[in-house]
Amino acid sequence: MGILAKMAGVVLAISLMTFIIFFGRLPIFRRTPIAWLYSFFVVHIPNGVLALDRRLTGGKFTSSLQRFGSFMMNDKHPTILIFFLVLLVGSEYMAVPSAWPYLSGVKRIAVVVMCTLPYVFLYLAAYSDPGTVALGSLKHHLSLYPYDYALFHPGARCYTCNLLKPPRSKHCPVCKRCVGRLDHHCIFINNCVGVGNHHWFLLLLLSTAILASYGGWTGMGLIRDRVVERFPTWSLWPWRAYEVVGGAGTALANTPLAGTSRKMSFDTWLIYLSWGFKNFIHLASVSLLGLLISPLVWGLLAYNLWNVWTGQTTNESLKWSDWKCDMEDGFVYKRRMSHERRPVVVAATREASGTDPLTSSTRWPVEAEHVLVRTEDGNPPAPNNKDLPGVGEWERVWTLRDVENLYDLGFWNNLKEIFIPNYQFNTRGLPAAERRGRPRKRVPRK
Ligand SMILES: [Zn+2]
Ligand SMILES: [Zn+2]
């Protein structure tokens, strides 16, 4: 029982820590214990260590640690990918052979398929091009999405790559390149997640989540069956287990109660369970790990699907949450987009890429209808400011509900767009005016 509690404690602590480190900075957890724990682990503990080290070694220890940390976080290296692989291979090596003799033919096939798929999707996610923006592919990336005149504006350049920034692209500081529709850089696949491999990344999450849950569930089931085989009155769930009392040498021996059964206490129930765990220690550890990390992987998948649902990347959701703060402070204005072409930007884009940024995105069925600007002082920009696009009066925007997300075309369209390269939206047969006026989804309120 001791070993069981320790094992569960360690696995639970690791899962919780991982969850906090991964999700703690997301806007959704602001002003919750998750965010407090995140700043405790990521800000306060490192600061405390830093202060202590300044006293003890004059800061030598932390500066070498910082170099190591910055290498781990900011350089491209496969350490976490290898850790993930070792965890996957190790778990399968520990669990599958001990479970195999007890599995039916169908389950054996299922296990082989489920164990193989994460490797396939990991390989595809890690080694396919996430959508690198280079001189040769710039034209293609510019044609994928229109500029929304909120998060992405025509004419913006990446000064590291010295290229125009296509709509929805972002420079990845780890890989040191711009990537089309960059979601985030993922250390588990040692690659960016972008327009070229987002679908492989989602499938990797799905297959890993299924493997963890199925493995955990089946492993625990097998252990339960072995315990019941040995102690037929025991049951894992519901906890309605019975024990026979009055065996030779016990207190109730030779009393009228000997040979009768009574409801098992929770402690005794646990002793039977730990008998199963001790006899199948490898399978038990892996099953427990699988069950405990399942919510984490499903949670990651759910977060990614939520982004698909709302038609935004992780990068865009972070940008929108900045906009939200500025909106609440009263610094954000919008006005109607004029579809008169802006000659300067168009000429510059055409020269750089051979493409017209305002007319080449024919694939996308809708265009920006508003221009969004941040102001320095909370006053609206001058109506005759020729540097800003759009026409008419500036209107103050207080909330994200008052702006539209150009890149959200509904869950199924968003999903198809991720899974089918250069997906052509079916707008044929719709009159042009109606095509432009399609109701658009709004940016979700955070
Ligand atoms: Zn760049
Ligand atoms: Zn990257």
UniProtKB/TrEMBL annotation:
It is a multi-pass membrane protein. The chain crosses the membrane at residues 7-28, 80-103, 109-127, 200-219, 239-259, 280-306. The lineage of its organism: Eukaryota, Fungi, Dikarya, Ascomycota, Pezizomycotina. Keywords: Acyltransferase, Lipoprotein, Membrane, Palmitate, Transferase, Transmembrane, Transmembrane helix. Coiled coil: none annotated. It catalyses: L-cysteinyl-[protein] + hexadecanoyl-CoA = S-hexadecanoyl-L-cysteinyl-[protein] + CoA. It is found in: Membrane. Belongs to the DHHC palmitoyltransferase family. It comes from the Eukaryota. The DHHC domain is required for palmitoyltransferase activity. Its EC number is 2.3.1.225. It comes from Sporothrix eucalyptigena. The gene is SWF1. Pfam families: DHHC. This is Palmitoyltransferase. Residues 157-320 form the Palmitoyltransferase DHHC domain. GO terms for molecular function: protein-cysteine S-palmitoyltransferase activity. The keyword Electron transport does not apply. Its main location: membrane.
